[in-house]
Amino acid sequence: MRISVIGTGYLGAVHAAGMAELGFDVVGIDVDQAKIDALREGRSPFYEPDLEPLLRKHVDSGKLTFSTDLSDAAGADVHFVCVGTPQKRDGLAADMTYVEQSIEALAAHLTEPTLVVGKSTVPVGSAAQLQARLIELAPAGEGAELAWNPEFLREGFAVEDTLRPDRLVFGVRSDRAEQLLRKVYATALAADTPLVVTDFPTAELVKSSANAFLATKISFINAISEICEVTGADVTALADALGHDARIGRKFLNAGIGFGGGCLPKDIRAFIARAGEIGAAHALTFLGEVDAINMRRRQRVVEIAGELLDNHVSGRRVAVLGAAFKPHSDDIRDSPALSVAGELHLHGAEVSVYDPKAMDNARRIFPTLRYAESAIDACRDADVVLHLTEWPEFREVDPAVLGEVVAQRNVVDGRNCLDREAWRAAGWTYRGLGRP
Ligand code: UDX
């Protein structure tokens, strides 16, 4: 079976490599020449653990090719659409331009019956419209069928999540579409991966709801952490106790600086916007609060840093450990770490940032910050150290060694995962979020 993957970003590049690993002949298409040049050499244009060896293996074997020319996708049995749906510049809604453009451009090449599978996160109702557009534009007419197959991969674990997904969702309108998708995912299905076969709107909504639920869970614990701050309770012990209830579970209950990235923030906003468009705004008003709680956490870190600096931020040195929105990724989209770094810089602080993988991306978006060579270098002469992305190397840093290079031993643990007692024992003033 031949597969095309349109869009080779964080989702598409991993999906293309994963499909090749499963034994298919795959062509990845993207408009970005530099990205395609890198991929053709088996290099990943972004950092994602385990991706590069997979790319190299299948580029070398010839199973995986890349092109900027959409006509190279023609003739594939299944086309996966993996382009981005970022937040619109002028509102909360998702910008559907890339999805619409790629499906319309692809349609012109569909002369034979084929299946186009949307994986991008889209507002509910999009698939039905896109199916109508496909039939209208494709020479194959009704032979050009659409399916919606949302993707749940987590950055940092994207290869694992692609090869061994925790569930599969097929939004389909025909048995033929279902059977083709069953062939594509035969390996995962043989391993008893749960499968939900459903209609378009349900498939689209599964993804929006999953991300809304995860965001709500994080904002829930962050709201409780605000209460902890007032009452002197410890949100990490509280989350451990809540997590022992199997109905609640401990995952996604880590209070701290909040969620960021290319998915959760923009997906809850797009969901709110879509609910408004379909006359159901009231159903999702709570997601506006989820968003607000999340953004307040960033502000809180700025406040705590200010408190540790006796409210004289201007001219003071601030070390920021972390730039990526989460560890094991170089993705800085809506990164809480960089938004705090940027805000303190605007208040006049001299901010020095270090991240093991996200330095180039951070430099591009925030060129006015200082970028250090290492965690120690970032902390040299710092008046306060902010731990904002929980990379293992930051957690393992020896507070006594770090204490030798800073001007003042002040640390804000924005992820509540440093060893508080060890830092205090080494003479640091430790401040977590929602912890006494
Ligand atoms: C998310 C979804 O998990 C994934 O299923 C979907 O396909 C895409 O969006 P991702 O953006 O890679 O994946 O990151 P995720 O691991 O969900 O973390 C999102 C953010 O929440 C990160 O900034 C992370 O630091 C933060 N987070 C996560 C918390 O603040 N607390 C937690 O307990 C968990």
Overview of this protein structure:
With 436 residues, the protein is an alpha/beta fold. The protein has 2 domains: 2-198, Rossmann fold (3-Layer(aba) Sandwich); 199-436, 3-Layer(aba) Sandwich (Rossmann fold). It is built from 18 helices and 14 strands. It has helices spanning 12-21, 33-40, 51-61, 97-107, 126-137, 158-163, 175-184, 186-190, 200-231, 235-243, 264-277, 285-308, 336-346, 359-365, 375-379, 392-395, 399-405, 420-425, and strands at 2-6, 25-29, 64-67, 78-81, 114-118, 144-148, 168-171, 195-198, 317-321, 350-354, 370-371, 384-387, 410-413, 429-432. The strands form 3 sheets. The chain has a 6-stranded parallel β-sheet, sandwiched between helices. Strands 11-10-9-12-13-14 form a 6-stranded parallel β-sheet. Strands 7-8 form a two-stranded parallel sheet. The longest helix has 32 residues, at 200-231. The chain is globular. The model has no long low-confidence stretch (mean pLDDT 98).
